[in-house]
Amino acid sequence: MKKKALLLSLSSVVLLSLAACGPADSSSDSSVATESVTSQDGGFEGQTLVVWEDIDKSVGIEEAIAEFESEYGVTVEVTEKAYGGQLEDLRLDGPAGTGPDVFTIPGDQVGTAVVEGLLKEMTVEEDILDVYTDVALESQMVDGKLYGLPKVVETTILYYNKELVSEAEVPTTVEGWYELSKTATKDGQYGLLALWDQIYYAQSVIGGYDGYIFAKDADGKYDTTDIGLNTDGAIEAAAYIQKWYEEGLFPSGMIGEQAINVLDSLFSEGKAAAVISGPWNLEPFSSAGIDYGILPLPELPNGNPMSAFVGVKSYNVSSYSKNSELAELFIEFITNEENSLRRYQTTKEVPAVKSLAEGDALADDPAAQAVAQQSLHSELTPNVPEMNEVWSPADAALQTIATGKATPKEALDQAAETIENQIEANHGGQ
């Protein structure tokens, strides 16, 4: 899977997606979206709505779909596809007339999809918009226009092995984990492991040192000409990251494409005291027999909390849909408070619904509570097309830092220059 600064008020705490996140599905299985036949009285009887849902997640909306079909006299056909690859499939299936009316994508793909003309703008009443947490809803906004409604949010958290570190001894700071790791790292065992050779994870450190991807103006719009990956703070953060690699606290093979497999395997085998990972590992780590605890990310050496990216999954209307009015009604229905809670209870993917975030519905869920705290110090993954130019250069820079092939300043200066050039070439500097 391709990994992909906003401080949240307590009233808009975002909760974590607690389910698996995987690579794009190459399946071309799809259904034909039928033409709208709205009756004169404004009904939708007889229409068929085609919905693309995430892999293994349609079970979470079965009851809601049945109710929607009964209420409107329509048929909803659901096809499961990995959500990370649905936009790519739509590029082909939409023009061919075999795409969906409703589909689900990561929030950081929304800007690109809008530029490509793949999403239909939505018109939603203010009282419905008030249902969702602010940061999740922001992921669906481009130039002040709404292009979807959020269904799930996620961020990274800390997993620790209770057999290797007791709850009373769990460090609350990164430096505490550093000291523990120096003692624990021997004979194939490790302390804290993190994928800091990738910007998706390294942002937890860089953001805590006031580094950033793109600056924001007073209106909250990204200024993609202001790249903050090589600020003094970002360089200081990268130097701290480099220390962990130089001192052998991370295994040498945990760099690059295979890094995530190494991290997952070591924790699943009981060979790492703790890892920084995402909600997709809740079930796999449990299935591996690991008795783990979950916490928000620890405090950095400068006294700031670790940052993180907030990822959002959304439901969106395809611009090729011939049933767009019905599609909008479906999205509003499927993401309302009642159906969002039912979906969570089945899939353990937590919705960005204010009442659920502030109420007791998720109070017994340790992961959700950890994310509620972590979200206070996290930022939305930029949803602008220019973000596509960030991932590879930033990862390359961090990997040269991890391997000691360049100083943090040299690597990050080069990354910022490359990103700037690619934005200019591919987006006209806009």
From TrEMBL:
Record's bilayer topology term: Lipid-anchor
GO CC annotation: ATP-binding cassette (ABC) transporter complex, substrate-binding subunit-containing
GO BP field: maltodextrin transmembrane transport; maltose transport
Source domain of life: Bacteria
Single GO molecular function: maltose binding
InterPro entries to which the protein is assigned, alphabetical: Maltose/Cyclodextrin-bd, SBP
Family matches, as Pfam families: SBP_bac_8
Cell compartments where the protein resides: Cell membrane
Signal peptide: 1-19
This protein's UniProt keywords: Cell membrane, Lipoprotein, Membrane, Signal, Sugar transport, Transport
Matches recorded under PROSITE patterns: PROKAR_LIPOPROTEIN (PS51257)
Family recorded in the similarity comment: Belongs to the bacterial solute-binding protein 1 family.
Protein name: Maltodextrin-binding protein
